[in-house]
Specification:
Number of helices: 4
Shape: globular
Distance between the termini: 39 Å
CATH superfamily of the largest domain: Nucleoside Triphosphate Pyrophosphohydrolase
GO biological process, one term: ribose phosphate metabolic process
GO molecular function: hydrolase activity
Strand content: 25-35%
Keywords: Hydrolase
Helix content: 10-25%
Number of strands: 10
Catalytic activity: GDP-alpha-D-mannose + H2O = alpha-D-mannose 1-phosphate + GMP + 2 H(+)
Cofactor: Mg(2+)
Length: 190
């Protein structure tokens, strides 16, 4: 452990090498603190994400089951999605909740659970988590053309068990379910 203060890298050049609008990719030439230059540092500025722990009045967590092509698997997760163009994180969270589950909520119902970075080395993406109490389906799903989603309500303590058993295993869902359980132990039977 030295006394040297950690400094940010200096970006000397940035090139957009995105193969498609679905996957943005940048190539940076960067100068490190020690003076070394790396001319091929690739990373993906994917954009921010919202995710919601939505609890019904009976303290059931609303989960979504859908196919995820990156893993080639059908996964059980919390509802959420990318921050929408021209919309704030809050507006995007409310829209994603309604679009994926049919639950309409208001900004005053959203309680922030914080944020996390899934891969701070290779992506520029922050996931913002929220919890919503007394969530009820009041409208129909408004799915994207690539989505087919089953909505499943599971008692909160059982959701925690599903995390323990590996049935729910995406990073952001696991992290925000655990954070919600730490903040609201009575709801999750902890």
């Amino acid at each position: 452990m030295g006394n040297t203060e950690i400094q940010k890298w200096t970006v000397l050049k940035e090139e957009d090498v995105s193969p498609s609008p679905w996957f943005p990719l940048l190539r940076h030439t960067v100068k490190l603190q020690n003076g070394n230059i790396i001319d091929d540092y690739f990373f993906a500025p994917l954009g921010d994400v919202v995710i919601l722990v939505a609890l019904t009045p009976r303290h059931e967590v609303i989960l979504v089951k859908q196919y995820k092509h990156g893993l080639g698997d059908i996964l059980l997760e919390l509802p959420g999605g990318m921050q929408q163009k021209e919309k704030s994180i809050i507006e995007s969270a409310l829209n994603e909740l309604e679009e994926e589950t049919g639950v309409k909520a208001t900004a005053s119902q959203l309680i922030a659970l914080g944020k996390l970075a899934n891969n701070a080395t290779k992506t520029r993406q922050i996931t913002y988590g929220f919890i919503v109490f007394d969530a009820e389906v009041t409208t129909v799903q408004k799915l994207d053309s690539t989505e087919m989603i089953d909505v499943i309500n599971v008692p909160a303590p059982q959701v925690l068990q599903m995390v323990k058993d590996g049935e729910i295993w995406t990073v952001d869902s696991v992290a925000f379910i655990l954070k919600a359980a730490l903040l609201y132990p009575d709801v999750f039977g902890v």
